[in-house]
Amino acid sequence: MKYLYSILFLIVFSNAFAQGPILTGLNNNPILKKHHPINKKRSINDTITLPFIDDFTSTEVFPNSIYWMDRQVFINSTFPVSAPSYGVATFDNLDHLGRPYQALNGNTHNHCDSLTSNPINLLYYTSGLSKVLYSISDSIYLSFFYQTQGLGDPLDNSDSLVLKFKDSLGFWKTVWKVSGTSLKPFKQVLVPILDLGYLSNRFQFRFINYGKSTGNMNQWHIDYVRMDKARNQNDTIINDVAINQVPTGPLSYYESMPYDHFKANPAFHTNNQLVLNLRNNNANNLVNFNFAYQVINQYNKLV
Length: 303
What we know:
Structural class: alpha+beta
Helix content: 10-25%
Number of strands: 14
């Protein structure tokens, strides 16, 4: 009888590996779990005044609470391809704890991540000691860069990224939408304020992606969100030369190591060259720059 059990075990064991390896997408984000501030409360600050500018370089993992009221997108520099600046907001189909919204299901397709601004005062601005009401003629535009896929999976045509504006009555209206594609370069979009209903002191805008809410697969990336008056549809130039990828470090084989170990053989542990990727976001002007780096110890002294 024991031989029969052994044969049955071998058959079951063999069948378990007969299909070969199965590749699946990353279905969670351990970084979000690690950084989740369990006891930290987020609050909406006073109403923001124009200009509104966020290039997602001021925070990591979660959006800056000065500008944003939710925390579903992932602030990072590793998922996009050739971003305008170092940080982007990635719509990764995971919640603020880094977990899929729903269990794996090929038919699941719905609302996933949101990125919602704090209230913005589009009712009036100050000029000296006076308050001046905004009007449509002030030419207020919201602009942003977006990219499909990045280093994730190609998006389906049924996937979409949507921009909504909130009017003075509290209703959200879709003002821009795009369908999913495979990897494309970052593209800038400009959306004007053309409805008097948006000129309130509690205006908000919101990005939402729709797709499979079952894991970190089909991604959208947003960068350089800007809103201001006195703009037009040709106002696309940003006077900024930005680091847009994680630079290589000074060490050849490690990201960090004890200094005593490094001193034992500095030539072996030091990179022959350092790579720093920059992007000139003002293509109309050439920019000259110098590159240098310093190494300091824990006492803020050069070594």
